[in-house]
Amino acid sequence: MTENVSTTLPATVEKIVPPLTPAEPEKAQIAVDGGDDLYKEIRIANALTDEDGNEVRLKVGAKVQVTVEADPSATTPKAGE
User: Fold this and answer.
1) Is residue 53 part of a domain?
2) Residue 41: strand, helix, or coil
3) How many structural domains does the chain have?
4) Which residues sit opposite 42 in a β-bridge?
5) What is the mean predicted confidence (pLDDT) over 65-81?
6) What domain range includes position 42?
7) Residue 21: which residues within 8 A CB-CB, separation 6 or more?
8) What is the reported pTM?
9) Which H or E run includes 13?
10) Is the pLDDT at 2 greater than 80, yes or no?
């Protein structure tokens, strides 16, 4: 089995976005370091699990890592290689 290809980028939690309705989750807005100004933020549900299985939340200013992973068949060689 072929292993997925990936890259990991440093990022910072910019703000916590409260839910619009009780049925929606709280979101953490994360800015990916080095991303283009208009496209560097992502929002995810602010619900993580620690090593003991407890639910935890990110805090504003937290340093995090964002990993992008893809199946090798979804990639192409870099031009010139």
Assistant:
1) yes
2) strand
3) 1
4) 30
5) 90
6) 5-66
7) none
8) 0.85
9) strand 5-17
10) no
The C-alpha torsion from 19 through 37 and 64 to 72, rounded to 10°, is 100
Q: Which two tokens stand for residue 75?
A: 């990639």
**Confidence band, pLDDT 50/70/90 cuts, at residue 61:** very high
CA atoms within 13 A on the CB side of 45: 8
Domain-embedded: residue 43: yes
pLDDT of res. 80: 73
User: If pLDDT is split at 50, 70 and 90, which confidence band does 21 have?
Assistant: very high
Amino acid at 6: S
81 lies in a domain?
no
Query: Tell me, what's the pLDDT at 50?
Result: 96
Alpha-carbon dihedral sign for residues 37, 42, 29, 49: negative
Is residue 51 in some structural domain?
Answer: yes
